[in-house]
């Protein structure tokens, strides 16, 4: 997904330059650098403790780096207080004032900035309409669902027309259906408003669904920053491949830039080992079940019907298992115990060292 030209003009570039941060003996950020284009939405994804929230807090001014800079537009804001950074932030907790209506909550930041009542009401009405809550403007937090409260929090952040929008796990407290609906709403609003946005999440689907680019973090470092489709199909490291989506680890041999995987010779991706024994990282949808000999034989030990597709676990004679994802229409004839042959569809794979 790409931000519109109009939206891109509205945002500012953000640069994180060689950020370093430690807490006691624990390194949270280890020389992290990242640039966000004007109007771009970048999601930071990674396991707990990888440094993604620390990076966001440093951008917000809620924490200070031990070294490095944060630049917004042409302005170095590293030493600028959070209240002077012109940023909107939405947290996991809705943090609405319970004694205020949705409209009053949205107006609050504008009031602090000295806007008169007429201007506050007009702007609050505008952003509440933007997030689809015009009909709920007079409700208190206790009268709204979790999804509605988070929309109010988003509207409050946008009301001040920030140069940067920061989202810290804003959907993790919601149920799956509401989460999916609201993530799409956030993306629609972000594209319409054009604010440069940094989105922190541990949810892979969330990051891949709405971001222009996704950065995968590991132990304080940015392992890969790419468009979602590139990140998924061409991971730069074994960590990225294993963390984003499901992955099979298939023993293989590499020679002359090609790997022997499940009876096929295929090219290796950048970052693969040069030669010798390794492990091919293969996604379930890069495998298929075939009737004829030629693939890797095995027995079906588990079947999962997941709507438009099915996932099949196949146990090979050596005891290792392969997870295969196929269209549901091709799976009805299979049963637990069926003897099958698994074949590789991919034309290139990432191969890591066997001990990684």
UniProtKB/TrEMBL annotation:
Domain of life of the organism encoding this protein: Bacteria
Keyword annotations: ATP-binding, Nucleotide-binding, Transport
Domain ABC transporter: 14-244
The UniProt record lists the keyword Cell membrane: no
GO molecular function list: ATP binding
Protein name: ABC transporter ATP-binding protein
Protein's organism: Aeromicrobium wangtongii
């Amino acid at each position: 997904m790409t931000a519109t030209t109009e939206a891109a003009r509205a945002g500012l570039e953000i640069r994180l330059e060689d950020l370093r941060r430690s807490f006691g003996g624990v390194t949270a950020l280890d020389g992290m650098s990242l640039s966000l284009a004007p109007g771009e939405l970048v999601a930071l994804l990674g396991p707990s403790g990888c440094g993604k929230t620390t990076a966001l807090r440093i951008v917000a001014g809620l924490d200070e780096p031990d070294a490095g800079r944060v630049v917004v537009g042409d302005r170095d804001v590293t030493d600028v207080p959070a209240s002077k950074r012109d940023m909107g932030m939405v947290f996991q907790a809705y943090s609405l004032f319970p004694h205020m209506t949705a409209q009053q909550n949205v107006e609050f930041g504008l009031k602090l900035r000295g806007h008169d009542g007429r201007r506050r009401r007009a702007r609050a009405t505008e952003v509440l309409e933007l997030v689809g809550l015009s009909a709920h403007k007079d409700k208190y937090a206790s009268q709204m669902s979790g999804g509605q409260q988070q929309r109010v929090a988003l509207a409050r952040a946008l009301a001040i027309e920030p140069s940067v929008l920061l989202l810290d796990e804003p959907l993790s407290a919601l149920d799956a259906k509401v989460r999916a609906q609201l993530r799409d709403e956030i993306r629609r609003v972000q594209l319409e408003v054009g604010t440069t946005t940094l989105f922190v999440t541990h949810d892979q689907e969330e990051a891949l669904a709405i971001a222009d680019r996704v950065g995968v973090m590991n132990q304080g470092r940015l392992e890969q920053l790419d468009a979602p489709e590139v990140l998924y199909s061409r991971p730069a490291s074994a960590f990225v491949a294993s963390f984003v989506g499901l992955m099979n680890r298939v023993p293989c041999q590499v020679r002359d830039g090609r790997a022997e995987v499940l009876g096929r010779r295929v090219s290796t991706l950048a970052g693969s080992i040069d030669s010798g024994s390794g492990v091919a990282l293969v996604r379930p949808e890069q495998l298929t079940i075939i009737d004829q000999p030629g693939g890797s034989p095995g027995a079906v030990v588990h079947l999962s019907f997941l709507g438009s597709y099915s996932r099949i676990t196949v146990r090979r004679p050596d005891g290792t298992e392969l997870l295969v994802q196929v269209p549901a229409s091709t799976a009805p004839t299979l049963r637990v115990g069926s003897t099958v042959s698994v074949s590789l569809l991919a034309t290139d794979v990432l191969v890591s060292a066997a001990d990684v």
